[in-house]
Amino acid sequence: MSLQAQLDAFKADFESGKPPYNAPRPVIEIMQRATAELIATGAASLTKKAGDVAPSFSLKDPNGNVLDSDELLRRGPLILTFYRGA
Amino acid sequence: MELKALEAAKTKYDKLGASLVAISPQTAANSRKSVEKNNLTFPILSDTHGKVSEAFGLRFQLPDYLIELYEGFKNDLPLFNDDPSWTLPMPARFVIGQDGVILYSEVNPDYTSRPEPEDLLPVLERAAAVKA
Questions:
Q1: CB distance A62–B46 less than 8 Å?
Q2: Is the ipTM here above 0.85?
Q3: Going along A1-86, which residue ranges are E strands?
Q4: Which A residues, 13 through 72, put their C-beta within 8 Å of a C-beta on chain B?
Q5: 3-state DSSP call for residue B97?
Q6: Mean pLDDT by groups of 10 residues along chain B of 132 residues
């Protein structure tokens, strides 16, 4: 199943209040409102884009090893995925 | 879900010489749990206080009514991220070329709408062809 199909199935279950989420209607509405408002700010159009120079970074992995973006780029192209967590 | 889908595509990325890393504001301990739970072979890097997500323009402040909701659920984001600010990154994916220039970017405030991991392959193939 494609990623988007999995996400669509999750969303359908979540928004219809099904288990394991059992989300009450007001909770669903608050989350929808927050997403709609974030879209409406236009913040997504102000991010770094193709053609921009990427900010470089040095961050730790869970074991405390430092990974440096310049070093990773010496090996090849770098894919970044920003993940909110949990 | 997204991390697992990226993991499934990772051998294709490897073949094209690309590295894959996830960046998250959550603490290292929580990232380790995510890595283990999803059997990931790529790292989740700790973006303490969202500095890197800020540099990419992805960091946003949660509205008060959402903070209130999370607090009601005992979803303690300041504890989870070791950051008092109640901020998160918008979901995003980038491919950076070896010269440091971004080749592909995708940002969507709605985390239930994400591109397929395979969508990155054409841009990685072009990058590999330029290098060859």
A1: yes
A2: yes
A3: 58-60, 66-68, 78-82
A4: 27, 30-31, 33-35, 37-39, 41, 43-44, 46-57, 59-64, 67, 69-70, 72
A5: coil
A6: 96 97 96 95 96 98 95 89 94 97 97 96 93 70
